[in-house]
Amino acid sequence: MELIIRENIEELIRLNADLFIETANQEIAAKGSFNVALSGGSSPKKMFELLASDYKSATDWSKVYFFFGDERYVPADSPESNFLMAKNAFLDILNIPEENIFAVDTTVDPESAALEYAKCICIFFDDEPVFDLVLLGLGDNSHTASLFPHTPILFIDEELVKEVYLEDQQVYRISMTAPLINKAKKIAFLAFGEAKAEAVKQVIQGKRDINNHPAQLIDPCNGVVYWFLDKAAASLLD
Question: Are 128 and 160 in contact (CB under 8 A)?
Fold first, then answer.
């Protein structure tokens, strides 16, 4: 695990973008392509916008393949869609070819959407899915991707993608499971703000309790976890 802590949020986001580009260039040099699972929410949006501006010429974007760590079960043109956020924030600006973007199909029922996305991932990776980089956020309640407290998805051992129903919100989400995320070469959390401090402490240093702190599940088999935190989010760490 590597902790990257900065006072300035803009600097923190830039360091996260640096990791993205550095990894992309390493993988493109080594095997001719780079694949990444994107996260949703407001935190990564700032990094996506930075990639589309200051880093526009920093890598060969035609060789980058984009997946989504989780997706809300909403139409692709919904303001709630993680795909639409990424599309507007940087994929369209960088002219990423459609065939390089693998979105969750939310026109089918949630279970089928999860099964089809898992199949899509397996086909891309020839049945050995190992992402070069997985980007993750962290909720105040210690969830990451759509691995929410007290949901059945936390206890899945084999499935790669699963639908999850959130009772309190009465909505479905489609999410990569912890076993799939944990196969990645690199995993990068981005969290900032005082509201995240307790979750950060529990996930990194707390007693193991995945039911209440699902992000504790993220423990890669052979990869590295990076935590990009501002001082406020890291303020409760020992």
Answer: no
**How much is the pTM?**
0.97
Where do we find the tokens 């401090």?
197
| 171-176: strand order across its sheet | 70-72, 171-176, 161-166
Measured in degrees and rounded to the nearest 5, phi and psi for residue 64 equal: -105, 135
How big is the chain by its Cα radius of gyration, in Å? 17
Residues 216-228 pLDDT 10s: 999 998 999 999 9
- pLDDT tens digits, one per residue of 10-25: 999 999 999 999 999 9
DSSP state of 88: I
- Please, what's the b/e burial string for 50-85 (b: 16 or more CB within 10 A of its CB; e: otherwise)? bbbeebeeebebebbbbbbbbbbbbeeeeeebbbbb
How many angstroms separate the CA atoms of 36 and 226, rounded? Answer: 15
Q: What is the pLDDT of residue 121?
A: 98
Angle between helices 9-31 and 42-53 (to 10 degrees): 60
Q: How far apart are CA 22 and CA 203, in angstroms?
A: 27
Asked whether the beta carbons of 137 and 191 are under 8 A apart, the reply is yes
Q: What confidence tens digit (pLDDT) does each residue in 55-70 have?
A: 999 999 999 999 999 9
Residue 85 parent element (H or E): helix 82-86
3-state helix/strand/coil string of 10-63: HHHHHHHHHHHHHHHHHHHHHHCCEEEEECCCHHHHHHHHHHHHCCCCCCCHHH
